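Annotators were shown the component list below and the corresponding predicted structure, then asked to write short factual statements about the assembly.
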Amino acid sequence: MFSPSEIADLEKKYSKYYMKKVLKLFSIIFLSILIALPVGYYILIYNNTTNKKQDKKIINKNKNEIIKPKVLILPKKLYNTVLTKESNETNTTKKIKTSTLHEINKSDKNMSVNKIVQIETIKKKKEENTSNLSFHIEPSNDLSYKTSTRSLLKLNFSYSNEKNTPTKIAKVEEKNDTIKEVKLPIQKVSQKKKPRIKIEMQDIDSVRYLKDKFQNTHNIIFALMLCEEYYSQKNYRESLNWSMIANDIDNQSERSWIWFAKSKYRLGKPNDAKMALKAYLKSNESETIKSLLKKIENGSLDD
Amino acid sequence: MSKNEYIGLKNVFVDGGVFDYINLDKSSAAYEKLTQAIDKPLKLILFFGKPGTGKTFLLQKIYNDFKKKKNIIFFPRPFFNEIEFLKALYFETFKEISPEFSGYDQFLSTVIEKLELSKKHKAITVLIDESQLYPNELIEKIRLLADSRKFKFLFTVHKTDDEDILAKDYFQTRIWETIELENSSYNEVKTYIEKKLIFHNKFEYLSLFKEKHFKLVMKLTQGNLRTINKLLFKLFEILEYYDVSSPSKINPRSLNTKFLIMAGISQGMINV
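Structure shown to annotators:
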């Protein structure tokens, strides 16, 4: 049997063991809390950040939906030219001629847009419970546009709490002639607010605009548009220069040859014009070129 | 509870003090394998396991079960000398005092002649416990005895983590069958303790041990039966002390885990 001292020693050891166990338990709990706190804090922060980001995304998405440029084609002055006979553009131009006002989404490359109307949403203060939309009409890249100056049309919409139909018809009075009806897509904005429309007009130098565009893009379209622009201004030397620039970019561009020949003709060098057109016809078949050549030969070129 | 009761309980767990073979699942399986191996025409059988897994008890049981039916000899203690071993083998085989032998060859010729005269044609099974303690030369002589087909030997060897007994030269090629006895599982530990108490008519103390106590015993002993015996012996020794000096600290119907932990500390199973 154990002696009292042995038992006392064992009890002492047991107390020590028990304390160690309790301390170990507390250490584990303490460590768990130490680990859990920053992790929990991080998760909380992360979730908040994610939620904010998601909210932002949703807001941006909504914004994008609202701000997304709507392109309206406004027939102001239609241009009747040889160039419009070409396939794509011809179709589009026909549309332009016949349409009242309709909206499409197209890039600059299409060059079929007469005028671009951008809708901007102006975020208004919440307490005002109203919102604004703006329309900008900017010069288009289309060759069919003939005027020397372009118009910038701004349509500012502010909404009241009145009931709205999904689309609004706005009447836009053109400078020169008719009143056009514009269908305005407003369903993505507050449906209950009625827009008030303000229209502002600004003039823009189309040559400068086209040159800027050409410098930025080096697209032959802008060079040809500049030919047309200068030709319409009777600046045949510049028209000739830009026809050669366009031809440098693409020597198979029929229109660059046309502008070259017409400019040469206007500069009093019909032989150069004829030689150029004949040279083109040697390797290409084109009724337009043949017709132009005939007119130059006959001296009956009017435009 | 009287002091004597705890002494009685303590003595139930005296290791090797009483032959109270407890039939467990793993020992039943090993028992079956061993008896089958003994019946086969094998020369050498290796029975191994970690210390305290119950190998000796199992050998003891086999010996007890077959000593009247078969020619079987059991050497629970190791021999370190060849002549002593041969004399003991002679005595156990013929149940008479061995004459003096000059060496192994003389012993072998004498034994073969005597066995043929007594018309004992079946090989005598020799159960050798603690084989790892035998000198290598003696193990080699035992192997030669097995080659004579007059004896078959069952070596019982401790298996340790550091040593691969099967890699030893004398076991490598000559052992024809190996049987391993592993540590007990949790359920076997539980059964072992309960059966021990039942075997020694301590039914009223079956309720002393709860699940948490069995789990702690398993954790401390890793299912080693010898270690369980040591732990429980110490436990009842501690309880014996408290029963005498401060009986209010113990409850005869319920075991305080503290005393089990104290027993573990006392046995060095728990380091403080």
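Statements collected:
1. DSSP finds eleven helices and five strands in chain B.
2. The first helix of chain B runs from residue 3 to 12.
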